[in-house]
Give the backbone structure.
Amino acid sequence: MLFTGKDSDYSDEDLPDFIAERNAKLKQFPHKSTRLKHLIQNIDKFGFRVKNCFIARRRGDLGAQKISKINLAQNNEEHEKFYEFVVILEKSIAVTKHVDIVFTQEYSQVAIRKAKDNGSRNVFDYFKLTKKEN
């Protein structure tokens, strides 16, 4: 199985990524980001194993095929910041019970940090404030 997505902890300096997230939320487009490291560390509970994992560091890199192969299964706290990912999974075992693990979130870690650092009440209010600035 192959899936793609956006990581919740891309680089704080990556303004195009932040603007894309902000504008999607302000226009009420469905938008979630994935805590990919958390998902990879728990993927076996869903009956899969990771065959390959590729990242694109910045918005647009995936389409331009600027990708790197990485191993997120290693249990290190610090990982390289990236925006998009492609994961190829392989079915390993059958799963017969429901697995209740959440690996997506409404706002990226970047947006949460920026809103907090700005003193905003919440991320959505921060998005509205920054829309006026850009």
Notes: Residues 2-18+28-105 form one domain. Residues 2 and 88 are 4 Å apart (CA to CA). The chain has a mean pLDDT of 88. The longest strand covers residues 48-56.
